[in-house]
Amino acid sequence: MKPVISLILLLILVGEGNAQEAPKIVMHLQTADTLVHKSLVNQITNMKKEIPDAQVAVVCHGPGMDFLLKNKSYYVNKINALKLSDVSFIGCQFTMKQKNIKPEDLVPFAQTVPYAMVDIVKKQQAGWIYVKLGF
Q1: Distance CA 89, CA 110 (A)
Q2: What are the counts of helices (DSSP H) followed by strands (DSSP E) for the chain?
């Protein structure tokens, strides 16, 4: 009887050790295409429904910065709602400099990094799942 109990306890401990942590997803946005922006909002919404504890980072650069601009984003309200559920929106300071975008031009919940591509690479090195957005 003791070997059976020991085996059960061992299986329980091994099972707990293999518990998966919440996925971390980095989504790469480099287009001003509003259909892609709409698709992004839908994808994040669906992801958070199915995997509520998923951590999502949307990294924007180049024309994709339009997604984070107050005066250009069609999805500010939806983005704002998503921000409440462990979704971060990150803009590229290099693109901002190239396009003369000021920090106050961005939606208030946007974060920035010096270089979007470097941030994406660092996230991938840290085990984040990479998703390229666009058609």
Answers
A1: 5
A2: 5, 5
State which CATH number among 3.40.50.11600, 3.30.830.10, 3.40.1260.10, 3.10.450.50 fits the domain covering 21-132: 3.40.1260.10
Q: What is d(CA 33, CA 54) in angstroms, rounded to the nearest whole number?
A: 25
pLDDT per position as a tens digit, 104-117: 999 988 999 999 99
Which residue reads 């995997």 in tokens?
51
**Amino acid (one-letter) located at 74:** Y
pTM over 0.70: yes
Smallest Cα–Cα separation from 101: which of 133, 73, 78? Answer: 73
Mean pLDDT, rounded, for 45-68: 94
How many C-beta neighbours within 10 Å does residue 122 have? Answer: 13
